[in-house]
């Protein structure tokens, strides 16, 4: 039975291996055929394509993006390579040729982008579209002052606008001072010195002097100094995670293993990657900008981001305002000519109307609001480098996220254990703590055996040496002598040792590959790994060397023989390797400390668990051991590792350990929140499709069977399975094939296949290159998405910069990714993006509220001008008081909107569409037609009440500005019993002797208009001026109202009643009427749809804003200096906006009633109600 069982297991194992090899050969054949077909089609298209220089240039640029894809240096024979590079693989370049090539190819460093001077950045901030609108407004103010110098208010207005515009530009400049160190970050990849063979001699000199054809020696722990082809490899392994996204170490060898994709072949090592194991030798193929990293740097520069969505929205808003302001200004400029006003007067009023329409304080409000939000996000570990990026994140509808280091921890971790024919969850004891209920038992024999075997078979250790990056930084420091550098290295090492002792096992750096690192970090909290290894002495081989063999890709196993005293044995053979290989070496297995023969049950269990681990994207290691009998292997036995003079194929199976780069703990829930908010999360990684799909499942990006799984399960074609699942995994080769298929097609027809893929809500792109990530991001943008890209590696930086909002990891992220990003997650927590999205959506809502608030007062600032021009009433509001509203009383409450709590539904509504703008027609109607008119009523009602108290009936004010009259002298006193009412100038007119008159003959030559704008007639009692001839007698033009408030003007020292000084007083009260209206307007705008009561009163900044607003009004009214500058007057309480309260309350009731109708009006079908469609802004 035992032999039969053994034969069956061997047959199954051999069949499995042969079947896999056949499948691999068939897949390779199909891929080669497809590659050949693609190459042929490319040649045909390139031969036929001749459509002008423009398209030729585009093709050249496209080819430069991934020139390394078409290289052949990795596959041509060495003899041809030597000839091409004028070198010798043994002796290297000669000094003469090397010097010549250094002149030809330049230094081995990346070209630095010329930095824009700081003053140019400041000028850029001061000349944005919004800032230019304000500069034009200031210029118009100066022009108006030049035309009418008797009114200094235009001068004040122009100066203050300039100051405000300059200050907001400076604030934005400092807040948006983004680092220009992208190229410097790439330079950090260059090791300071490298070993080179020239003229047959090995020598060390700066890596910047390397040239193509140099033969370099690669040492363990050093960075690769250029793109090289491997000539010799001593188990050399490199970390390519920054380029491909794979966290596993990759073996390098002289053999070309992939002729079509250089990134996949084993005989190339790339500039900037790290040699973590072994050593080797290679020939330099590319240096500087020609390296793969250099081409990615080119992609970063060429993929420069567009304007942020907020910048676009503000530009649209500015166009709206500019068109409205200029149109109304021109209209009334023309209307003034029709009415008969002088040209200068018309121009001054047109300028006043234009300036009144420009919300001067809004730019400062936006800047302050974004700055405050950025600081708030910083407290939540989200660093905003570009202020406008805050809002962009809020409008994000698609997140393209890298896998390694972003969604995952970028470190291999033990996931599962399989021993005693059972699976156990491999929870880490240091992480979960002593109170956690673990599935495995530390005292169980099977676990102890697996523990001991795994540690003795591995060589990884914890590394307390100073990190390579810090060493390079110190060695590359400019201006330091070598002695100073050595001293700094010593100090850095001492500081590092102190920090190292405080680190947990999970935080400590290691020496060894990722798999062994995962093992020691799992077992170290259980028992010190050095103690475990020191408990067993390594046996000696026939050459008196340690009897152990490292892992290699041919054998797929590593083993060690240790001295292990038992009752029947002196030595023990322990083996680690690929699970299929280890299983094939065993004919027995441990089960609860007992040895059992492998049978069909064991075979079935092994195949099932190994397949399950593979489907889950886990890397699996198998372990076995064998106690060598005493009688055959006595003490002092000479082991021969080449001849295998010990029973290597008769081991006892111990168990399996599966490893995975796990998702960060907070990621799965964060992805669910993104989906709830209507945001699609797409994984874009350089890792293998199986691993990517498995991690996507754990992250909740994929929640159902993928198209590929359905295709295999039902044995149907990809096209048939495509419509049966919402989950799709796309290999990068499909993107390459799509790009080839699209060549020669018109622009509008390109990328149709990608658009179809992007229609899937659950999507993963695997094995993608940096250029392909750019294509994916561009495709998402073309589909109408606002795209956020997250990443941490060099390979992510082009896509990060291309995205609408680029997000980099702050801890594990490379400097390149951080510098390309608009936002950095300081805690590397993907869930912080959700916080950022909520804040971004909130700030978009709050900016809407701020704009509606500011525009409301614009109407109440504009209509007084229109009343002054059309109905010739005294000017109710001066341009200086308009300024006091825009950048005085309005700006503080407007800014406090940023502190308002988010709407209840903010994270359940879908992302705003591209058609939903910051300033829409509905918002303009609400601000201008609805609240703007009500706010104007507040001001006018207060103004009319005030002037009535000073003797002016509202009806008498109509067209009072065009009434001509005979002015009295300042010394005249009003006398109603006098035929001339006390007007001595009127009495002196011959036609009006004895108080009699005959028509208007006496008025024609002596009439002048009252100056209601300036103080020229402020001391006159207008009851003596407004006289007319009626029924042959001189009579008063108006039935004057009683003087209810007998106040003396501090400027004229005369009563306000019946004088033009009452107009100055009335202007101040009109101003206060608008302020009162804005207080209730603020309350109505605190929420867009929810009842205001639900917002509560927790926004203490709102009360501070109201207090500042109140203090400003008090200062403007009661501080004499401000009275002089702004033309205001000290008011009584009854004129302090009290009369505006009725209309202010109507404004609040309308706002709440409108929101109630939006919430409660439901349509009879699935479409939104009329209120939702036409009223919600």
TrEMBL record:
GO terms for biological process: intracellular potassium ion homeostasis; intracellular sodium ion homeostasis; potassium ion import across plasma membrane; proton transmembrane transport; sodium ion export across plasma membrane. InterPro entries: ATPase_P-typ_cation-transptr_C, ATPase_P-typ_cation-transptr_N, ATPase_P-typ_P_site, ATPase_P-type_domA, Cation_transp_ATPase_P-type, P_typ_ATPase, P_typ_ATPase_HD_dom. Residues 17-44 form a coiled coil. Its main location: membrane. The keyword Cell membrane applies. It is a multi-pass membrane protein. The keyword Cell membrane applies. One of its GO terms (molecular function) is ATP hydrolysis activity. It is found in: Cell membrane. GO terms for cellular component: plasma membrane. Keywords: ATP-binding, Cell membrane, Coiled coil, Ion transport, Membrane, Nucleotide-binding, Translocase, Transmembrane, Transmembrane helix, Transport. Residues 72-146 form the Cation-transporting P-type ATPase N-terminal domain. The chain crosses the membrane at residues 129-148, 154-174, 320-341, 347-372, 851-871, 877-899, 1100-1121, 1133-1151. PANTHER family: CATION TRANSPORTING ATPASE (PTHR43294:SF21), SODIUM/POTASSIUM-TRANSPORTING ATPASE SUBUNIT ALPHA (PTHR43294). Belongs to the cation transport ATPase (P-type) (TC 3.A.3) family. This is Cation-transporting P-type ATPase N-terminal domain-containing protein. It comes from Paramecium sonneborni. The lineage of its organism: Eukaryota, Sar, Alveolata, Ciliophora, Intramacronucleata.
């Amino acid at each position: 039975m035992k032999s039969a069982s053994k034969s069956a297991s061997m047959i199954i194992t051999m069949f499995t291996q042969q079947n896999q090899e056949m499948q691999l050969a068939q897949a390779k054949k199909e891929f080669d055929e497809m590659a050949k077909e693609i190459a042929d089609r490319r040649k045909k298209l390139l031969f036929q394509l001749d459509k002008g220089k423009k398209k030729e240039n585009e093709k050249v640029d496209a080819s430069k993006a991934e020139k390394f894809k078409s290289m052949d240096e990795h596959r041509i024979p060495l003899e041809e390579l030597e000839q091409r590079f004028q070198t010798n693989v043994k002796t290297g370049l000669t000094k003469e040729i090397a010097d010549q090539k250094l002149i030809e190819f330049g230094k081995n460093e990346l070209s630095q982008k010329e930095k824009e001077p700081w003053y140019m950045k400041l000028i850029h901030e001061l000349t944005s579209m919004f800032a230019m609108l304000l500069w034009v407004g200031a210029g118009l103010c100066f022009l108006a002052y030049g035309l009418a110098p008797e009114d200094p208010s235009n001068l004040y207005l122009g100066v203050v606008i300039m100051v405000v515009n300059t200050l907001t530009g400076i604030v934005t400049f400092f807040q948006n001072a983004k680092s220009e160190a992208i190229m410097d970050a790439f330079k950090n990849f260059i090791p300071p010195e490298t070993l080179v063979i020239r003229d047959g001699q090995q020598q060390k000199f700066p890596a910047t002097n390397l040239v193509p054809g140099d033969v370099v020696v690669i040492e363990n722990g050093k960075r690769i100094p250029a793109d090289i082809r491997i000539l010799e490899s001593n188990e050399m392994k490199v970390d390519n995670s920054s380029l491909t996204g794979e966290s596993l170490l990759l073996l390098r060898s002289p053999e070309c293993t992939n002729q079509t994709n250089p990134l996949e072949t084993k005989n190339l090592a790339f500039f900037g990657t790290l040699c973590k194991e072994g050593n080797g030798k290679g020939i330099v193929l590319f240096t500087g900008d020609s390296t793969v990293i250099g081409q990615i740097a080119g992609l970063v520069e060429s993929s420069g981001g567009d304007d942020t969505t907020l910048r676009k929205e503000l530009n649209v808003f500015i166009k709206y305002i500019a068109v409205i302001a200029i149109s109304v200004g021109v209209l009334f400029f023309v209307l003034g000519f029709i009415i008969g006003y002088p040209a200068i007067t018309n121009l001054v009023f047109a300028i006043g109307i234009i300036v009144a329409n420009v919300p001067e304080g809004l730019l400062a409000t936006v800047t302050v609001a974004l700055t405050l939000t950025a600081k708030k996000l910083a407290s939540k570990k989200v660093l905003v480098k570009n202020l406008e990026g805050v809002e962009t994140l809020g409008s994000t509808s698609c997140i393209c996220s890298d896998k390694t280091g972003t969604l995952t921890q970028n470190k291999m971790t033990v996931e599962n254990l399989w021993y005693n024919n059972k699976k156990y969850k491999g929870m880490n004891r240091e992480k979960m703590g002593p109170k956690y209920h673990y599935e495995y038992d530390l005292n169980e024999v099977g676990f102890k055996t697996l523990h001991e075997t795994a540690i003795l078979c591995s060589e990884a250790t914890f590394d307390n040496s100073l990190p390579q990056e810090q060493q390079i930084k110190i060695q590359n420091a400019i201006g330091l002598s070598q002695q100073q550098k050595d001293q700094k290295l010593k100090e850095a090492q001492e500081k590092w040792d102190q920090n190292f002792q405080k680190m947990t096992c999970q935080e400590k750096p290691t020496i060894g590959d990722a798999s062994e690192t995962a093992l020691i970090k799992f077992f170290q909290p259980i028992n010190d790994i050095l103690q475990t290894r020191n408990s067993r002495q390594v046996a000696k081989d026939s050459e008196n060397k340690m009897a152990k063999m490292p892992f290699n890709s041919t054998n797929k196993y590593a083993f060690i023989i240790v001295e292990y005293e038992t009752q029947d044995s002196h030595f023990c053979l322990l083996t680690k390797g690929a699970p299929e290989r280890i299983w094939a070496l065993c004919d027995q297995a441990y089960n609860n400390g007992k040895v059992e023969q492998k049978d069909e049950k064991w075979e079935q269990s092994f195949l099932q668990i190994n397949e399950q681990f593979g489907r889950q994207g886990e890397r699996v290691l198998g372990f076995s051991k064998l106690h060598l009998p005493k009688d055959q292997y006595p003490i002092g036995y000479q082991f021969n590792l080449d001849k295998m003079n010990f029973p290597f194929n008769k081991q006892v199976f111990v168990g399996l350990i599966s490893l995975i780069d796990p998702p960060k703990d907070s990621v799965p829930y964060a992805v669910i929140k993104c989906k709830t908010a209507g945001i699609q999360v797409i994984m874009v990684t350089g890792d293998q499709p199986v691993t990517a799909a498995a991690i996507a499942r754990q992250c909740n990006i994929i929640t159902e069977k993928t198209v590929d799984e359905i295709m295999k399960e039902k044995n149907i074609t990809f096209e048939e399975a495509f419509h049966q699942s919402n989950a799709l995994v796309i290999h990068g080769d499909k993107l390459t094939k799509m790009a080839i298929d699209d060549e020669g097609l018109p622009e509008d027809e390109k990328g149709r296949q990608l658009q179809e893929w992007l229609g899937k809500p659950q999507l993963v792109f695997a094995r993608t290159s940096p250029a392909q990530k750019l294509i994916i991001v561009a495709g998402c943008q073309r589909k109408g998405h606002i795209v956020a890209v997250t990443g941490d590696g060099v390979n992510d930086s082009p896509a990060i910069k291309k995205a609408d909002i680029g997000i980099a990891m702050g801890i594990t992220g490379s400097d390149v990714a951080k510098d390309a990003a608009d936002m950095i997650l300081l805690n590397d927590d993907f869930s912080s993006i959700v916080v950022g999205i909520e804040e971004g959506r909130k700030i978009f809502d709050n900016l809407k509220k701020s704009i509606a608030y500011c525009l409301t007062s614009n109407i109440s600032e504009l209509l007084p001008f229109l009343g002054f021009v059309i109905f010739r009433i005294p000017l109710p509001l001066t341009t200086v008081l308009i300024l006091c509203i825009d950048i005085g009383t309005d700006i503080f409450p407007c800014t406090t909107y940023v502190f308002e709590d988010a709407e209840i539904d903010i994270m359940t509504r879908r992302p705003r569409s591209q058609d939903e703008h910051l300033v829409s027609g509905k918002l303009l109607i609400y601000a201008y037609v609805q609240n703007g008119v009500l706010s104007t009523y507040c001001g006018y009602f207060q103004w009319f009440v005030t002037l009535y108290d000073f003797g002016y009936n509202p009806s008498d004010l109509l067209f009072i500005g065009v009434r001509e009259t005979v002015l009295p002298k300042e010394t005249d006193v009003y006398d109603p019993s006098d035929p001339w009412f006390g007007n001595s100038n009127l009495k002196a007119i011959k036609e009006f002797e004895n108080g009699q008159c005959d028509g208007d003959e006496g008025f024609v030559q002596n009439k002048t208009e009252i100056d209601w704008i300036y103080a020229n007639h402020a001391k006159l009692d207008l009851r003596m001026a407004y006289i007319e001839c009626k029924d042959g007698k001189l009579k008063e033009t108006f039935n004057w109202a009683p003087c209810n408030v007998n106040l003396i003007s501090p400027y004229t020292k005369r009563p306000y009643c019946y004088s033009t000084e009452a107009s100055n007083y009335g202007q101040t009260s009109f101003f206060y009427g608008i302020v009162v209206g804005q207080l209730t307007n603020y309350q109505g705008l605190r929420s867009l749809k929810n009842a205001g009561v639900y917002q509560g009163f927790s926004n203490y900044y709102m009360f501070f804003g109201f207090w500042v607003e109140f203090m400003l009004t008090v200062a403007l009214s009661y501080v004499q200096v401000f009275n002089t500058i702004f033309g205001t007057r000290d008011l009584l309480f009854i004129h302090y906006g009290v009369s505006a309260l009725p209309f202010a309350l109507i404004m609040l009731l309308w706002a709440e009633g409108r929101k109630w109708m939006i919430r409660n009006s439901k349509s009879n079908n699935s479409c939104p109600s009329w209120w939702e469609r036409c009223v919600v802004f």
